[in-house]
């Protein structure tokens, strides 16, 4: 029983991160129907920037929490600019190109960002300096740290903020309108370009937050970390129904929990035939099974082939 | 819709063009060998990628199904060959048994994956195929315990070369007074395979099946309404692409003598897809161009960047490997930016683009 609780807690932490990254994918996809393959790399850059800032300020005598907050803030700002630049330079000129063209561009950008990161931060693993004194809490045989609590809380706050933004503000309304029908939205006076740029900026900001979380959770960063993270998060977004905000959140949490449970129990289930290094498989197997029965994801609307 | 009427055979100039291409193809391995056998191997990979890209072109270019896990089928073919012709299990079957077997198994995997998932819309299909590719790779990486099937991350070594009777593709031998090295023999084998797949691609393009694929690509609902069994036709494209991937994998295995899961990463799938899209989806010469360029470019950069840095700055400023990939990524972005339909799109596609731009 205690392993179950333990895996649930770990899964929830991981899921919160997936959910934040998945939101970045889903917002962009919902509005312009593009799989932004470079988003995982934006998250990675976010982690790296936060790392650099934290290391630079670590000896300055500021309280650790302030240092962390500054690191987070700088990383969010850098990623917002990066997201905006990506859209402006790489995707906007291709908005009317064949569907696969921007996909290849996205892949190209992802290669570029990865290698830029490698040139700047090197090809070795980077250890995150621990800024918070880790406290371990025990509940019913399972343990969790204050870092985990912080991650889940922060993720929840950020998601609430996003929901507020999308459903209660003017730009949110413009976003929803554009997602439904960009043409009609523009006739109603919505500045489509601005809305699309906003989707990239907000998505990248969320990605930066997620990147900082991953960094402080695993205390390690690497220039290739964005790839698998992005892949999982995209899977989460599809799982929940891509283009759907609530779906991305639920999909992320679900994926995190499934993965943690899978890794914890696969040995028992298969009589130790398959070990926990098959952890990465669960995401994809669950995805394939879900899509077989619900082709537009768990919470996606059933759309026809033609809009 | 392709209503052009084709001449029933190549005209006079076409024969000359074909002859010229034939002569160039014949000369390439010998010219490349002047710079060392490494260049012959690069030429071999270029042709292997032409084969793979044309296989994927059937799936992506003709049928319009976005497959991001194509390398999984390539991996299946490669491992079938590796397991059945190496000391790993002590089995040494001849290649003409294994290659069809690898193709059949890859085809089976294609059908197994495709039959439940082909009803998905484009991007969902993409992510499912991507996931499938990763699943295959993870299995290859970890199936060394408790029973050692794939030898895990170390991969399988000492794979038999292709051999016909006493004629082995691994050694240098004298044919008609000309010394032909191992890689050069593989080159001619690969060219033969590539010509085969080009013929298949050309013949498919205007066939009943090919037109059905194009109809599905353009508008699936309309295609269905015209009486096309979309599910089976899509499955056919998928299975065909998969079996070509399987064949390519087998040849890769024999040529390298070594396979490991590392060769079958998602990046590989993406590179093959990039060849198809960058060259010009669904257009055979374009796809060939894309494959050759994307194989040659990283190699050219490998040999070009280091001396260039030395000349410009007098020392190595940036790790050449990462700079190489950086330039590769930038090239992808720039080509797509200025030629969104690919470097050499079919005339029909260019027309469509021009229309939609208005």
TrEMBL record, chain A:
Bilayer disposition of the protein: Multi-pass membrane protein
Protein name per Swiss-Prot or TrEMBL: Leucine/isoleucine/valine transporter subunit membrane component of ABC superfamily
Membrane-crossing residue ranges in chain numbering: 12-35, 42-59, 65-86, 98-121, 147-166, 195-217, 223-242, 249-267, 273-293
Cell inner membrane recorded as keyword: yes
PANTHER family: BRANCHED-CHAIN AMINO ACID TRANSPORT SYSTEM PERMEASE PROTEIN LIVH, HIGH-AFFINITY BRANCHED-CHAIN AMINO ACID TRANSPORT SYSTEM PERMEASE PROTEIN LIVH
Cellular localization per UniProt: Cell membrane
Family to which this protein belongs: Belongs to the binding-protein-dependent transport system permease family. LivHM subfamily.
Annotated GO CC locations: plasma membrane
GO BP annotations listed: D-alanine transmembrane transport; L-alanine transport; L-isoleucine import across plasma membrane
Coiled-coil region: none
Pfam families with a match to the protein in the record: BPD_transp_2
One function term, GO molecular function aspect: L-valine transmembrane transporter activity
Keywords in alphabetical order: Amino-acid transport, Cell inner membrane, Cell membrane, Membrane, Transmembrane, Transmembrane helix, Transport
TrEMBL record, chain B:
Pfam families: BPD_transp_2
Record GO cellular component, one term: plasma membrane
Membrane among keywords: yes
Chain segments annotated as transmembrane: 43-63, 70-89, 95-115, 122-140, 186-204, 235-258, 270-301
Classification lineage: Bacteria, Pseudomonadati, Pseudomonadota, Betaproteobacteria, Candidatus Accumulibacter
Lineage: superkingdom: Bacteria
Swiss-Prot/TrEMBL keywords: Cell membrane, Membrane, Transmembrane, Transmembrane helix
Major localization listed first in the record, in broad terms: membrane
Topology with respect to the bilayer: Multi-pass membrane protein
Gene Ontology MF terms in the entry: branched-chain amino acid transmembrane transporter activity
Subcellular location: Cell membrane
Name used for this protein in its record: Leucine/isoleucine/valine transporter subunit membrane component of ABC superfamily
């Amino acid at each position: 029983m205690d392993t179950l609780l333990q895996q649930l807690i770990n899964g929830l932490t991981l899921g919160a991160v997936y959910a934040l990254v998945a939101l970045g994918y889903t917002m962009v996809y919902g509005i312009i129907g593009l799989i932004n393959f470079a988003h995982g790399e934006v998250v990675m850059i976010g982690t790296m920037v936060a790392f650099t800032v934290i290391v630079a300020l670590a000896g300055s005598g500021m309280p650790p929490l302030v240092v962390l907050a500054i690191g987070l803030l700088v990383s969010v700002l850098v990623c917002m600019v990066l997201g905006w630049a990506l859209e402006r330079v790489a995707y906007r000129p291709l908005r009317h190109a064949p569907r696969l063209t921007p996909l290849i561009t996205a892949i190209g950008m992802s290669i570029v960002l990865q290698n830029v990161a490698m040139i700047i931060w090197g090809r070795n693993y980077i250890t995150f300096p621990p800024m918070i004194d880790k406290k371990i809490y025990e509940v019913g045989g399972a343990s969790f740290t204050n870092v985990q609590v912080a991650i889940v809380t922060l993720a929840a706050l950020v998601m609430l903020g996003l929901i507020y933004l999308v459903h209660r503000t003017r730009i949110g309304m413009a976003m929803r309108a554009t997602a439904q029908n960009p043409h009609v939205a523009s006739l109603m006076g919505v500045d489509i370009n601005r809305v699309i740029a906003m989707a990239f900026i907000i998505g990248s900001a969320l990605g930066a937050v997620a990147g900082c979380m991953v960094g402080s959770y695993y205390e390690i960063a690497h220039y290739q970390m964005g790839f698998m993270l992005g892949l999982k998060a995209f899977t989460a977004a599809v799982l929940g129904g891509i283009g759907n905000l609530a779906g991305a959140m639920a999909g992320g949490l679900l994926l995190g929990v499934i993965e943690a449970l899978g890794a914890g129990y696969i040995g028992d289930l298969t009589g130790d035939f398959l070990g926990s290094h098959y952890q990465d498989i669960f995401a994809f197997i669950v995805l394939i099974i879900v899509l077989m029965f619900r082709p537009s994801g768990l919470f996606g609307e059933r759309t026809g082939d033609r809009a | 819709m392709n209503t052009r009427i084709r001449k029933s055979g190549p005209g006079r100039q076409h024969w000359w063009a074909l002859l010229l291409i034939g002569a160039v193809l014949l000369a390439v391995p010998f010219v490349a060998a002047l710079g060392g056998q490494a260049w012959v191997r690069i030429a071999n990979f270029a042709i292997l990628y032409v084969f793979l890209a044309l296989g994927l072109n059937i799936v992506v270019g003709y049928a319009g199904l976005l497959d991001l896990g194509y390398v999984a089928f390539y991996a299946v073919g490669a491992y079938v060959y590796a397991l059945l012709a190496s000391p790993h299990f002590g089995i040494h079957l001849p290649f003409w048994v294994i290659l069809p077997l690898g193709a059949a198994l890859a085809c089976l995997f294609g059908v197994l994956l495709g039959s439940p998932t082909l009803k998905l819309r484009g991007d969902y299909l993409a992510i499912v195929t991507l996931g499938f590719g990763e699943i295959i790779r993870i299995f290859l990486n970890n199936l060394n315990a408790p029973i050692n099937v794939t030898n895990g991350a170390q991969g399988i070594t000492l794979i038999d070369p292709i051999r016909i009777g006493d004629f082995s593709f691994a050694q240098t031998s004298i044919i008609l007074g000309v010394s032909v090295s191992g890689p050069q023999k593989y080159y001619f084998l690969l060219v033969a395979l590539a010509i085969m797949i080009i013929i298949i691609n050309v013949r498919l393009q205007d066939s009943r099946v090919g037109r059905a694929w194009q109809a599905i690509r353009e508008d699936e609902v309309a295609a269905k309404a015209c009486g096309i069994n979309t599910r089976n036709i899509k499955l056919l494209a998928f299975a065909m692409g998969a079996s070509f991937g399987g064949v390519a994998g087998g040849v890769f295995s024999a040529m390298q003598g070594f396979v490991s899961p590392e060769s079958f990463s998602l990046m590989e799938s993406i590179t093959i897809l990039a060849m198809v899209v960058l060259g010009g989806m669904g257009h055979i010469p374009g796809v060939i161009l894309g494959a050759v360029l994307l194989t040659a470019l990283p190699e050219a950069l490998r040999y070009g960047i280091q001396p260039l840095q030395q000349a410009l700055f007098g020392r190595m400023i940036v790790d050449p490997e990462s700079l190489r990939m950086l330039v590769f990524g930038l090239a992808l972005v720039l080509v797509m930016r200025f030629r969104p339909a690919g470097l050499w799109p079919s005339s029909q596609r260019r027309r469509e683009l021009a229309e939609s731009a208005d």
